[in-house]
């Protein structure tokens, strides 16, 4: 999947007619990081993918779905795409991948104990998200307000600016994320 993701990132940049320098300027990601990601020398972090998605006007799930096979109506658990940011301690499983004509998707997120991921902007301004904590404790900061969630809690939000997801428990956190395009 990393090789297909690298190829798709290069395609998107070419479709927009941008040089690596122009994309670096628009996204705030260094040219060298972009170059390595497009050549599949490194897998981009969640934060880097989020910045690129914002520039390209896509959710992360939509970008990842573009590098997968044609979406099916039924997605068996064993076939649900996983993506991992080992550096951040984050695993993302696309339970119900995005599909043409549908605005919603369902994602399972797992954060290791102490994992802390900050997104400087939403991939799509006004993105609707519902975060349901399935296991553990999670702190989500939206608009400089920290929300402390434990198993069973759900936070509903529209994302316009920076957000932060931090695992608060000794065992990490597992959550369901429903994403709805505006």
Compact summary:
By secondary structure, the protein is an alpha+beta fold. It contains five helices and nine strands.
Which features would summarize this protein structure in a list?
182 residues; alpha+beta; 9-stranded antiparallel β-sheet; 35% strand; globular
How would you state the average pLDDT, rounded?
91
Task: Please work out how many helical segments DSSP would assign.
Answer: 5
Estimate percent helicity. 25-40%
Order of helices and strands: HHHHHEEEEEEEEE
* Rounded radius of gyration (Å): 16 Å
- Name the overall outline: globular
Structural class: alpha+beta
Give me the secondary-structure topology.
Blueprint: H1 2-16, H2 20-27, H3 31-38, H4 46-56, H5 60-66, E1 82-85, E2 90-96, E3 104-111, E4 116-119, E5 127-142, E6 145-150, E7 154-159, E8 163-167, E9 173-180
């Amino acid at each position: 999947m990393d090789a297909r993701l690298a190829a798709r990132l290069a395609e998107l940049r070419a479709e927009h007619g941008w040089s690596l320098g122009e994309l670096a300027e628009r996204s705030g990601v260094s040219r060298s990081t972009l170059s390595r990601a497009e050549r599949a020398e490194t897998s981009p972090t969640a934060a880097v993918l989020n910045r690129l998605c914002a520039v390209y006007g896509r959710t992360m799930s939509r970008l990842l779905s573009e590098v997968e096979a044609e979406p099916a109506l039924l997605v068996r658990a064993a076939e649900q795409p996983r993506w991992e940011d080992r550096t951040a301690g984050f695993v993302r499983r696309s339970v119900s991948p995005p599909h043409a004509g549908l605005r919603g998707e369902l994602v399972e997120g797992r954060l290791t104990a102490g994992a802390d991921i900050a997104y400087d902007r939403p991939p799509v301004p006004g993105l609707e998200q519902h975060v349901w904590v399935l296991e553990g404790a999670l702190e989500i900061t939206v608009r400089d307000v920290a929300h402390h969630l434990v198993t069973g809690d759900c936070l509903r939000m529209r994302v316009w600016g920076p957000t932060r997801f931090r695992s608060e428990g000794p065992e990490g956190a597992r959550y369901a994320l429903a994403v709805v395009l505006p």
